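In keeping with the milestone schedule agreed at the kick-off meeting, the structural modelling team has produced records for the first pair of proteins. Each record is given below as a sequence line and a structure-token line. The laboratory manager (R.T.) confirmed that both were archived under the project's standard naming scheme.
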Amino acid sequence: MQHLDLKTFIPEKVDSAVILLHGFGADGDDMAWLAPCFASAFPTTAFYCPTAPEPVPDYPMGRQWFSLTEELQRLASANLSDFDDMCFSMMTKAKPAVRLIKDLMDEIESTHHIGQDKIVLAGFSQGGQLALQTGMSLAPAVAGIISFSGVIGLLEKDEIKSKPPILMTHGTDDATLPFAAHKATVAVLKSIGADVTDIVLKGEGHTISDEAIAAATAFLQKHLQR
């Protein structure tokens, strides 16, 4: 089993956990700033920020959960005529990373003696896709999934093991993953009966804004503290 480099924030008493998955070209530190944003409201929640093991070509300081260069170019063009094919390609390449996150969850559950119904998967951009893909492939269901500026296509029926509550946030002015891709993702999720909360960030780009953090805090209060 491959162990991921981790940035962690672990209180003395733990009854739940949030895994924060970074985007393409970043690392665990890039998501670690979110933990203090949530910690005061969730004093018994552990936060795990793993770093993807695969370096980005020509940018060794950056990490990727899977190769994304071709798909990023196509998505940035805002030509979504082959959106399903692009998403299928990304989801296929993400499968080894899904396994890594499942292994990390097993470690968290064993360490803190909690079930996966007390774990939220959250991610930004590529990490958002990974959170969605991993979360819906698990049974029993995780407490919830948060995707900041992430997209996903239609999962195969045999890959959908649960439909946990999902929070999606996306900026209308996102030049990396166009807002149209977000709308297509929400439509896909709703078509399979997923419980989706859709937060549209007007005028925002490819980012996690204050509004997105507020929405995520409310989502965690509803689904992690039940």
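The second protein of the pair:
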Amino acid sequence: MGQKVHPHGFRLGYIYDWKSKWFADRDYPQLLQEDLTIRQTIRRLLPDAGISSVEIERNANQVTVAVATARPGIVIGRGGQRVDELRAALERATGRRIRVNINEIRIPEIDAALVARSVADQLERRISHRRAIKQTISRAMQRGALGIKIKVSGRLGGSDMSRKDQGMEGRVPLHTLKADIDYGTAEAHSTLGLIGVKAWIYKGDRILEQPASIERRRPKRKAAEAASAAKAASPAPAAESAAPAEPAPPRAAEGAEPQPEPEAEAKPDATT
């Protein structure tokens, strides 16, 4: 069977960061359940706000919740009334102090969670899945995506047997760690059952690699060539004064016999 990995979890710690930033020792299950409650409450109270992600950060005495949405006006409400209601609901659900930050998504057409939700909404309105996929892909490519893939699965077109269908344009390098690939899912609640939607959007590389230059690949050879060139360009040093020659030994007179070399003194015998 195919072994598939979540694109965001695959790149955690490399180009992506965690969506929940806190540490717990003994209270880990309770805090994890609180995170799930916070996310479910936000999506239940704001179903039409175009919420893409919810990031949670815990400090000593308060919880900071950052909501990324394509419609910040709906989340904030008139005079901030709706965001105050959201904060109060979260504090009642968790029993902690909550701080809510609203972040706007500038280009919702290339956000994977919003793209999947858009396709699911069209399927709920009985629009053909092929038409919905094709229009969504064309809009994403026009807004700057380098590649996009959308897959739907379920009783497509009201058929008795479920099937899968997908559309793709550009390139989506799922095995490349430096590739910024956004991934999102959604569910369409049709009269015949659930239809699942998955979306992958490739936005480019987060880490731009520079090709290794000749100097970086062969540093020793380059240094040797530079040293030889500098040596050739420098003027030759002045000749040092010659050291005085040692006097030659005196020559023996003609006709005189050569003097024998003195023999080494005989060492005394150790036995005597």
